[in-house]
Structure formats: C-alpha cells, structure tokens
C-alpha cells in the first residue's frame, strides 16, 4: 500500500511584495510530497530533474520518508525552471520565465515497487502525461486525484477532458471551474464538471476557502484569515498533498473523510504561504499541525439546535 | 423592549440578466424590517416616503407586525428612487438613476413609543443621519448595528468615522473594509477598523460568506452556493435585518450568539436573491427558514477529534 505523487520538481525564482528569492526548490510534486508525508509514511514520488538538482534535496525527501526511486535525474540536463512575480494583492501573478528543460520530454517511470499504489496524486502537468501514468499501474489505484490549470484548458482541452474522465477527484480553482464548464455559478459549474467523469470536485477559492462537491452534496471549508500572505507559491500543491496524505492515512474513501482531508490540506497550505517556497512546510511538528487544524475548527464552528 | 430599524424605503427599478422590473418597493429599511420580523415581533421602522408610496406596502409592514409610526409620509413629494443594472457575473452593477426626492432633507423622527429600543439597526444612509438617530434615544440602545457603503467613504469620511466610533457592530463588504482601512489583508483591515471604535466587525463577502471579528476572535460563515442568483438587490440589508432580528430574539449580546445571528441572516439573504426585490422574503414560513438554516449547518459541518 502506498501513495504515489507525480508532478514537477523545479527551481523557482519568486518575487513578492515582501522580497525575492534566487532559484529555490519548488514544483508541484515537491510541495505535495512534503505535505502528504506529514500524514502517511509511504509516499513515493514520480518526477524528473536535471543533475543540477541538489543531492541535499533528495536527502530531504528521504528524511521525510519520501521514496525517490521514481525521481529520474537526467545527466547533463537542467531542471524545470519557473520565475514569477506576484502583484500587491497576492492573488495574481506574472510569469517572468518558464524553461521546460528536462520536462520537455518527461517519460514517467513507475518503479515496480510503486505498483502497490492505492492513492495516486496527479500534480499539475500535461494531461497526456497524467493519463499515461494512470495507465502504467497494473491495478488502478483506489483513489486518483488530479490537479490541473487553465493553461491546459487553453492549449490541450481534448486531452484534458479525456484525462478528467479517468479520475475520481478533480481540483481546480474557481476561475478554472468557470472556464472549464462555461458556467459562472459554481453550483452549475460543478454539476457540469461532475458530469465529465470525476465523482468529486474540489474548487479552491484561495482566501475564501474551498468547496467540495459530490452528487448533490456540498461542503464549504473556510480558509484561515491571515494577516500576511508571504508567498502563495505551492499553496495549491500543498493543499492537494495534505488532502491525499490524509485520505491515505484514513484509508476509506467517503465524503466525510474528504471533508476532514480538505481541512488538513487547508491547514498545511496556510503554513505554506507564511514563508518563501517550501521553507515552512519542511519542518512542521504534528503539534503545530494539530493546533492549526483546531484554529479551523473554532473558525467555522457554530451551534444551532 | 423593541428593535428599531432606520433606513431608506424606496422604489427600485432593477435589471438583471434574468429580466427587469418596473418600479418596485425596496430600500434598506424595507428589506431589514421584513427580515427581522421573522425572528422578533417588536420591529419598528424609522424612514421617510412620498405620498406615492402605496398604502398596501404599509399594510404589508403591519401584517408582518412592523410598527410604522416612525415612517413619515411627505404629502406632495416623491419617494427615493434607485435604478440599476447588474452585470452578467451579478457581483457588479451600474447605477442608472438615483433620485433622492424626500430623502434629500430627511429628518428622522423617533416616536415616544420607540424609546424602549434595545436593538438599533442603522441601515445604509448619510452617516450624519445615522449619528443623529443614535442621539435621539434617551437611553442608548444595548446593541447598535451600522451598515454603510463605499459612497460615504468617498464623500463623507469624517462624518463616517465619527459615526463608526459610536456603534457596536459595523457591517461592510470586503472591498469597503479594504478601502476604509487601507489594508488588503482582511485580518489587518479588521484590526484597524476595530480600533476605530466598534467592538464587532462583520465583513460580507457575497458568494464567499461573511467574517465576524471581535478582539482576536474570528468566525467564518459560509454562503450557500446557489445555482441561480436572480437579483442581489437588498441581500445585504436582508442579512443585516436577519442578524439583528435574531440578536433581539435571543436578547444577549455575545460572540456565540452573533455567530448564529450571522447564519440566520445569511439564510434570509439566500432567499432574498432568489426573486426580484422583496418578493421572496415577504412570505416565508418558519419551516422554510429552519430548513435553510439546516442547509448551512450541513454545508459547513465537519468532525475532527
């Protein structure tokens, strides 16, 4: 039994109103694995990097009990690089540079020892690659969660729709849900997206929390109101990693378990934005996470008889 | 003991993507009184109208047990008129016409029989008038709730700041909280606004729910995700009316009671937007309201040990 995460590992250069970084380690799979590993001890990564990717980062994965057998290191090649600058509201950003490098011809390898995968997280990547990965498991995992973004809706919609059909849970933000469905109302958007295949849809609304849809049921999770959002990079990936890590921990797929998974994922995402990159989510204690989750409980709890 | 609501009564002509109305009865006090009256049977209105205001509307107030002694009818004058058109996203609108008419020299009269007021709702109006009303009560009401809008921040900021200082609860939307405080983060905005005087701040976020701030405590209420928002006019006033109506019913001012008041106010607001104007909130049953409140409970409930 294991949880496999596929996605990017990357170098990011980030500029926010609070400062800027040189190239630091990022990527959807990095954030998701680190987050998932707080809840589940059999997390396995599938990704590709160049030989510029530091050994210390691989050691950091292993220190968090993340299996890196599926992390391909391409000799003489460079890792994926992204650079972006956030606007003052922290809700929008400009991409300054995207260098695909090793990602351009990424062929994901699933090691034999990953075939026990029960929980599969498809981090944001080309839909074709996400689809390939599902097909490379001899037994379909019990729960397949897929993250994607507007970029693929713009340039690879058919591939995206084919891939969406194959997954159990889709996570998108509110703008993406509207784009994908052509509906402004998120309730109508959710109905249309659920009709595309996934049994569950999570709509991420940033500072406004998240909505979980399944059949006619809806759960609204709050976001923790924060005085400072230092760097939003990776918050969505951290959320997804925390979500599926919690699901792997409890083991049973149900709407109620997913509600809690969303709260745990949101709690980890709320840590993520407090520092640049992965800095904050590298060294959390279970006590810190439990305390943060309790903040979500008291934030949203009310008693009406 | 009573609940007094001051605000506009008006004619509105509304255009939404779903249709348009002729002049229909609206105004902050109209929505707030109708909403409050579902929870509390001693609601009293302070407002002004022209003699074009239909007798049937006054009868409708009375049928809902709203005392109209403080509703001045100005012979030979016309009621306040507003006309607006909502954009396709229903979150923004253009004002097509504003005719102040009787509102231009509104001098609110507080009938002697209103002096038992314990709960005072200051609907959106000139801050000077809101301030005058507070001063006309011989005993300061136990809870003073004030609604306002960006318009007064633009043209009467000093008056607004003076009035805010005198109230217990301020309700604004997120853009207004940012404008009033000069802070983008709603947590920082809330700190600054609470420092201006009010003990409680409610930030209304439309489809994203509402936040209640008091000292270091925060409560996040969800909004009910709706397939169709037919007409948002009056939703904020209905929310405020439901909020203070529930507070008057329970009688005790506390953070926990305010949490529930926000849920009841949000439930009424969710009805309001389902039809044009006040149509939907004129004829609700207690059973319908209770069922809607239970939707909010199941929407946001999760169990983490």
Written account of the structure:
The structure is a homodimer of 305-residue chains. Helix content of chain A is 35%, strand content 26%. By secondary structure, chain A is α/β, with parallel strands linked by helices. Chain A has a single domain, classed as Ribokinase (UDP-N-acetylmuramoyl-L-alanine:D-glutamate ligase). In chain A, the strands form 2 sheets. Chain A has a 9-stranded mixed β-sheet, sandwiched between helices. In chain A, strands 2, 3, 4, 7 and 8 form a 5-stranded mixed β-sheet that branches. In chain A, helix 1 packs parallel to helix 8 (235-250), helix 3 runs parallel beside helix 5 (157-164) and helix 6 (174-181) packs across helix 7. The longest helix of chain A is centred in the C-terminal third of the chain and has 18 residues, at 255-272. The N and C termini of chain A lie far apart (42 Å). The interface between A and B is large, with 36 and 37 residues.
Shape of chain A: globular
Average pLDDT figure of chain A: 96
Helix and strand succession of chain A?
EEEEHEHEEEEHEHHEHHEEEHHH
Biggest interface and its residues per chain? A-B, 36 and 37 residues
Q: What does the radius of gyration of chain A come to?
A: 18 Å
Separation, N- and C-terminal Cα atoms of chain A: 42 Å
* Total strand segments of chain A: 14
Beta percentage of chain A is 25-35%
Largest sheet: spatial strand order of chain A: 6-5-1-9-10-11-12-13-14
Q: Which helices and strands, and how do they pair?
A:
2 copies of one chain form a homodimer.
Chain A: E1 2-6, E2 10-16, E3 19-20, E4 24-26, H1 28-36, E5 43-50, H2 55-63, E6 66-74, E7 80-86, E8 93-99, E9 117-122, H3 127-135, E10 143-147, H4 150-155, H5 157-164, E11 169-173, H6 174-181, H7 186-194, E12 200-204, E13 210-214, E14 217-221, H8 235-250, H9 255-272, H10 286-300
């Amino acid at each position: 039994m294991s949880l496999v995460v596929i996605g990017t590992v990357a170098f990011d250069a980030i500029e926010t109103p609070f400062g800027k970084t040189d190239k630091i380690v990022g990527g959807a799979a990095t954030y998701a694995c680190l987050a998932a590993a707080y809840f589940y001890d059999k997390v396995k990564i599938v990704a590709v990097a160049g030989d510029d990717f530091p050994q210390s980062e691989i050691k950091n994965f292993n220190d968090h009990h993340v299996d890196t057998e599926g992390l391909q290191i391409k000799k003489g090649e460079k890792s994926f690089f992204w650079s972006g600058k956030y606007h003052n509201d922290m809700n929008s950003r400009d991409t300054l540079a995207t260098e695909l490098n090793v990602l351009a011809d990424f062929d994901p390898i699933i090691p034999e020892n990953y075939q026990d995968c029960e929980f599969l997280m498809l981090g944001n990547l080309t839909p074709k690659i996400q689809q390939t990965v599902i097909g490379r498991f001899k037994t379909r995992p019990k729960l397949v969660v897929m993250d994607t973004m507007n970029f693929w809706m713009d340039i690879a919609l058919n591939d995206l729709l084919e891939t969406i059909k194959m997954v159990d849970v889709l996570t998108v933000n509110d703008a993406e849900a509207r784009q994908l469905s052509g509906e402004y109302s998120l309730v109508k958007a959710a109905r249309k997206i659920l009709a595309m295949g996934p049994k569950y849809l999570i709509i991420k609304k940033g500072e406004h929390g998240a909505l979980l849809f399944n059949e006619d049921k809806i759960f609204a999770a709050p976001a923790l109101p924060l005085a400072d959002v230092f760097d939003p990079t990776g918050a969505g990936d951290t959320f997804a990693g925390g979500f599926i890590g919690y699901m792997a921990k409890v083991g049973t797929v149900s709407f109620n378990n997913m509600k809690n998974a969303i709260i745990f994922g949101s709690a980890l995402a709320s840590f993520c934005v407090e520092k640049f990159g992965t800095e904050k989510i590298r060294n959390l204690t279970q006590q810190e996470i439990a305390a943060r989750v309790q903040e979500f409980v008291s934030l949203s709890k009310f008693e009406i008889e």
